[in-house]
Amino acid sequence: MPIIDLSDTLQNDKDWTPWWARNSVTYQNHKFGRLAIWMLFRITPKYLRGGLGWANDVIKLSTHGTTHMDAPWHYAPTCGGKPAKTIDQIPLDWCYRDGVVLDMRHKNHGEAITVEDVKLALDKINYKLKPFDIVLIHTGNDRRLGTPDYFTHGCGVSAEATHWLIDQGIKVMGIDSWGWDVPLPVQAQQAKASGRNDIFWAAHFVGIDKEYCQLERLTNLDQLPSHGFKVAAFPLKVKNGSAGPARVVGIIED
């Protein structure tokens, strides 16, 4: 039963990540642990097997700073006129379901994935969506991980396609890019040029009307079949959180 890791690696990323999205991992080695044990318990190295203490790590990150699941609360305070769910309120049975990969690698930078694109991709793999499937959009943008272009380049999903997926009973959908929408610099330019308020973050704002979750910053979707696998995507239980980092995997059924 092959298990495919679909998650980014959490690490210090200041060399390529914008300041507002950086993660920080402070590593405390076994010598540091030895000192901590002395400070806490006044235990000297002679009482420690090998003369060393424990290792520890201190992490500073946004809940959106690595592979994660967005909760409806991320999009707006309400969904359909009711309080939007935070990440600790997401039903766990949404997070382990049959998966399907839709290949959108033909889409160019700045293009939106349309309803027609989604339907054609489903026809190509001869698959009919069923409620609660986890739909994964394969753009290939994870190849830009480790470069500043990761945050500014690629395609994204339109609001109309997001509505359509939700209307098929989909609760969780994911993408191998930094965000679900067309890259924000592109949307910002389009919104300011048009003077409209229905362009910037349009697919995310679908969550004002309809309840759904996004998986963002996925990787390795090219290692999955188009269907016939499970997705496990359990987010950290962050109280009142807008998102939760997740170790997302694809489980290929024998």
TrEMBL record:
Q: Set out the biological process GO terms recorded for this chain's protein.
A: L-tryptophan catabolic process to kynurenine
Which PANTHER family does UniProt cross-reference here? CYCLASE-LIKE PROTEIN 2
Q: Gene3D superfamilies attached here? A: Putative cyclase
Its name, as the record gives it, is Cyclase
Q: Name one GO molecular function term.
A: arylformamidase activity
Signal peptide feature range: none
Q: Which organism is it from?
A: Moorena bouillonii PNG
- Tell me the SUPFAM superfamilies matching this sequence: Putative cyclase
